[in-house]
Every structure is written in C-alpha cells, then in structure tokens.
Amino acid sequence: MEFYSPTRGKLSFEAVFEDISTFSSENPDDQYKLIIGTDSHAYTRRSVVFVTAIIIHRLGKGGRFYYRKQKTRYMESLRQRIYYETFLSLEVAAKITEKLAENGTSDMNVEIHLDVGEQGETREIIKEVVGMVIGSGYSARIKPESYGATTIADRFTH
C-alpha cells in the first residue's frame, strides 16, 4: 500500500504510520482525530479512480494528510461505487487500528468520512454505508461533515 504526502512525497503505509505517530507525539496533550475518507471519479466508461485519504488532525491546530490513488474497472452502479469507497476506507482504517493497538495508542479517535448525504442520489444508501462503518467499530460522518472524502480525497480524483 503506497501513499503520497504533499510535503513528504511517496510513502509506504508503514512510513505514513510513523509520520502520524511522530506528528501526534510532538504535542501529546493536544487532542487528535484520525480521519479516513475515499472518493471516486469515473473518467470514461472503462475506469474509475478511487482516492483514499488519511488525515491526522490536531484539533484547532492543523494537521497532515496522505492519499492513495488507484484505478479500477468501470462501475455502472453508483451504489456499487459508494460501497467500494466505504470498503477502501474500512480497509485502511483496519490497518491503522491494528498498528495503533500494537503501539499502545488505540485510544485515538478514528472517523470514516463517507461521500454520501441527504441531498442527491446517495441519500438512499446512507443507512447502509453508515451501518457498515459503525458495525466495524468506527464513527461515521456524512455530508456536509465528511470533508475527508468530499474535500481532501475529492481534490486528487482529477
């Protein structure tokens, strides 16, 4: 799993985790939120680009982000794309949660930001994908609070 950081360049998942650990240990008394969100964009009827972002947010004091971009076959169904976005976010969250537990820092607040909202076509599947996230043990955010997916990941789908 390779990620890209605008400030650090190409990083392995392990390097991303180390950078997150270093960042959060700089000010251990501050509060942090770990956010994972995925967005997608269909370019042609042949492929879809999915971008998964990891954001470490030092509340009130900025943060850092990393993203992974992957191209897959075209998906006709919006429902299928949203499910796959959710799956990709949960996959990364599970890896991060595992590493946090290994390092004894499993108390970090992890949120999954979903690219669904009460307006538009995705409103019909909100309960389903939020249920997937909550059932996996994470907090879920939808539009307009899901900036990890709708702003950061979205920026790199183009």
Short structural description:
With 158 residues, the chain is an alpha/beta fold.
List the helices and strands and how they pair.
Layout: E1 2-5, E2 9-12, H1 13-26, E3 32-42, E4 47-58, E5 63-73, H2 78-102, E6 109-113, H3 126-135, E7 139-141, H4 147-155
Parallel strand pairs: 3-6, 6-7
Antiparallel strand pairs: 1-2, 3-4, 4-5
What keywords describe this structure?
158 residues, two-stranded antiparallel sheet, alpha/beta, 37% helix, 5-stranded mixed sheet
Give structural notes:
- With 158 residues, this protein is α/β, with parallel strands linked by helices.
- The chain has one domain (2-155).
- Helix content is 37%, strand content 32%.
- The protein is built from 4 helices and 7 strands, in the order E-E-H-E-E-E-H-E-H-E-H.
- A 5-stranded mixed beta sheet has the order 5-4-3-6-7, with helices on both faces. The chain has a two-stranded antiparallel ribbon with strand order 1-2.
- Strand 3 and strand 4 (47-58) form a beta hairpin.
- The protein is globular.
Q: Main sheet: which strands, in order across?
A: 5-4-3-6-7
Report the β-strand fraction as a percent range. Answer: 25-35%
Biggest sheet record: 5 strands, mixed
Rounded radius of gyration (Å): 15 Å
Summing up helix and strand content along with how strands pair, one would put the structural category as alpha/beta
**Helix proportion:** 25-40%
The number of domains: 1
- What is the H-and-E element order? EEHEEEHEHEH
List segments where confidence is low: pLDDT < 50 over at least 5 consecutive residues: none
- Total count of strands: 7
Seen as an oligomer or otherwise, the chain set is: single chain
